[in-house]
Amino acid sequence: MTWTIAVGVKQVPDADEVGIDPDTGRLDRASAPAVMNGPDRHALEAALTIRDQVGGEVIAMTMGPPNATSVLEEAVAMGSDDAVLISDRAFAGSDTWPTSLTLARAAEALEADVVVCGEETTDSSTGQVPPGIAAHNGWAQLTYAEAVDARPEEGRLAARRDVEGGYELVAAELPVVVAVAFGEFDPRPAPLHRKIYGENDFEPTVWDAEALGIEDEVGLDVSPTSVGRMETVDPVERKGEVVDEVDGLLEPIAEVRA
Amino acid sequence: MSDDAVDVGEYEDVWVFVEEHGGEVMPVSWELLAEAAKLTETTGDDLVALAIGEGLETVADEALARGADRVLVADDPVFEPYRADPYGEQFRAMVEERKPSIVLIGGTHTGRDFAGRVAVPAHAGLTADVTELDVDDEGILQARRPAFGGDVLATILCEEHRPQMATIRPGVFEAAAPDPERVADGDVVSVDVVVDEADAISEVLEREVGDTADITEAERIVAVGRGVEGDLEPARRLAEALDAELAASRAAVDEGWVDGARQVGQTGKTVRPDLYVAVGISGAIQHVEGMNKSGTVVAINDDPNAPIFEHADYGIVGDLFEVCPALADRLEGEPIQEVTG
Ligand SMILES: Cc1cc2nc3c(=O)[nH]c(=O)nc-3n(C[C@H](O)[C@H](O)[C@H](O)COP(=O)(O)OP(=O)(O)OC[C@H]3O[C@@H](n4cnc5c(N)ncnc54)[C@H](O)[C@@H]3O)c2cc1C
């Protein structure tokens, strides 16, 4: 038996390319180029690792605007067999509740045995979507996964989980949602021929909310949370003094210890 | 207004999840209890602690001593060691039966793991990584979290759904000292265990927890980054000379040089020591978020353009393998050779 492995990927503003707005002196995210969420590359690598272990298919899925297709092309270049774009205006304003519902329904539609996600996204950093997918479907979950061990003979996937101050090895029944610890699973480079295929020939399957039967269960209206005030935080003032010799540090250290 | 919106008036009390593993309570639990006490002062609600595990008598008493009016206890071997599915199911059943207005959970790996298994089926609002909490006159939780790399503090609201849930970043709030006299006045309520081992969909095969150091209370910290290249000796010696705790960037933790309990930053701990010495740390925004409330910040880095210098009061541009021993020598009162950056 081989497994169907779905990978959730998201397009985010490139955190490394976020410039400073010359008028306000603050970070300007709107003009940053859109890229694949860094932790999702590690999720892709984990998915490909599982495929290497059991055989099967890796299918990347993203929920986003039509131009999010570029992250699917990247996923295909890295080695995904196929990819799905889940796109609909009805998704606008979704918080993590409908977002994880959407991905949960997509995973069901793909008949996924395993769903692999990044630990969190760099633009909203909640980490709530992977457990949310598992919860919507009543599936098992393995978050903060540092290593994976497919056990098709047991119908289970085992993972080494980082538990802050240690680790644990947990085996979970399929279907299972895995969230990969960001520092593990160094992504493999995409071979040139796959890059060319991804960019030129590959077309993702496209699903809207209706295709997943959730047109009344997404968007702002079903999102329990909303964003209220946004306050800019004044950066912490630091002296920013560079000293030439360690002796220059002795007085400030002595002051702190006094 | 959505179909699933609830009668918010039916929901009352503020719940705090007390996270324990094998009898050891994660410090963030007590931080939350102290902070939640401020909320109940405003709302007039009861402050309820909730513990899930096995053999929880001592933990329950400590929760009372630390400010809870009542402790709900789900005590059963099925909960030890922790697993997402039994915890989530038990917690959810308690929430649906007892209808709390606010539920606070520590933003540890465990808290972030199971919180969604409660919030999703309950269709509750769940705010992640909260660093400031408040409640308005109508009992609406004002859960504030850093957004856009800490440039902005966003207030997340949950107006029409209940409970209002949030995971809170460890180390941000101060824990209250226990008052043993409170124990006698509080109630410990044993709740029905709704989970059966036969229904579990996961199994813990091995579990090893070693270093559970609490760096959040440290007065002085020496933190190492990828720049130390696996050699902790210079930083250790400096930490000893300063009587400081050792901490680390995520890169140093991911490399396996330092244990995860000592990680500072967005996905680690928030620390606020009087002195923070960053050794071979570049100063990525996710790191800075966890240490920028520190008193005096010192950076040691051989790259003059490293962002950490913008977040430091004093910087030394130089090789950490020379600067750390030289500084330790001076702190230990020994004369040194000239070391410049
Ligand atoms: C979702 C997500 C969450 C994250 N959460 C966290 C978090 O909680 N905490 C965290 O720290 N990071 C976090 N990160 C990672 C963060 O983005 C950085 O990658 C990380 O902080 C870098 O660690 P570092 O500074 O130790 O390593 P590097 O960035 O590699 O920096 C090493 C530094 O050492 C200096 N150096 C090298 N050799 C020497 C020498 N001999 N002497 C002196 N200096 C030297 C270099 O100049 C460099 O500045 C997160 C990232 C993501 C995507």
UniProtKB/TrEMBL annotation, chain A:
<feature type="domain" description="Electron transfer flavoprotein alpha/beta-subunit N-terminal">
    <location>
        <begin position="24"/>
        <end position="216"/>
    </location>
</feature>
<dbReference type="Pfam" id="PF01012">
    <property type="entry name" value="ETF"/>
</dbReference>
<comment type="similarity">
    <text>Belongs to the ETF beta-subunit/FixA family.</text>
</comment>
<dbReference type="InterPro" id="IPR012255">
    <property type="entry name" value="ETF_b"/>
</dbReference>
<dbReference type="GO" id="GO:0009055">
    <property type="term" value="F:electron transfer activity"/>
</dbReference>
<dbReference type="InterPro" id="IPR014730">
    <property type="entry name" value="ETF_a/b_N"/>
</dbReference>
<dbReference type="InterPro" id="IPR033948">
    <property type="entry name" value="ETF_beta_N"/>
</dbReference>
<dbReference type="InterPro" id="IPR014729">
    <property type="entry name" value="Rossmann-like_a/b/a_fold"/>
</dbReference>
<dbReference type="InterPro" id="IPR000049">
    <property type="entry name" value="ET-Flavoprotein_bsu_CS"/>
</dbReference>
<protein>
    <submittedName>
        <fullName>Electron transfer flavoprotein subunit alpha</fullName>
    </submittedName>
</protein>
UniProtKB/TrEMBL annotation, chain B:
<dbReference type="InterPro" id="IPR033947">
    <property type="entry name" value="ETF_alpha_N"/>
</dbReference>
<comment type="similarity">
    <text>Belongs to the ETF alpha-subunit/FixB family.</text>
</comment>
<dbReference type="Pfam" id="PF01012">
    <property type="entry name" value="ETF"/>
</dbReference>
<dbReference type="GO" id="GO:0033539">
    <property type="term" value="P:fatty acid beta-oxidation using acyl-CoA dehydrogenase"/>
</dbReference>
<keyword id="KW-0249">Electron transport</keyword>
<protein>
    <submittedName>
        <fullName>Electron transfer flavoprotein subunit alpha</fullName>
    </submittedName>
</protein>
<dbReference type="Pfam" id="PF00766">
    <property type="entry name" value="ETF_alpha"/>
</dbReference>
<dbReference type="InterPro" id="IPR014729">
    <property type="entry name" value="Rossmann-like_a/b/a_fold"/>
</dbReference>
<dbReference type="InterPro" id="IPR018206">
    <property type="entry name" value="ETF_asu_C_CS"/>
</dbReference>
<dbReference type="InterPro" id="IPR014731">
    <property type="entry name" value="ETF_asu_C"/>
</dbReference>
<keyword id="KW-0813">Transport</keyword>
<dbReference type="InterPro" id="IPR014730">
    <property type="entry name" value="ETF_a/b_N"/>
</dbReference>
<dbReference type="InterPro" id="IPR001308">
    <property type="entry name" value="ETF_a/FixB"/>
</dbReference>
<keyword id="KW-0274">FAD</keyword>
<keyword id="KW-0285">Flavoprotein</keyword>
<feature type="domain" description="Electron transfer flavoprotein alpha/beta-subunit N-terminal">
    <location>
        <begin position="14"/>
        <end position="204"/>
    </location>
</feature>
<dbReference type="GO" id="GO:0050660">
    <property type="term" value="F:flavin adenine dinucleotide binding"/>
</dbReference>
<dbReference type="GO" id="GO:0009055">
    <property type="term" value="F:electron transfer activity"/>
</dbReference>
<dbReference type="InterPro" id="IPR029035">
    <property type="entry name" value="DHS-like_NAD/FAD-binding_dom"/>
</dbReference>
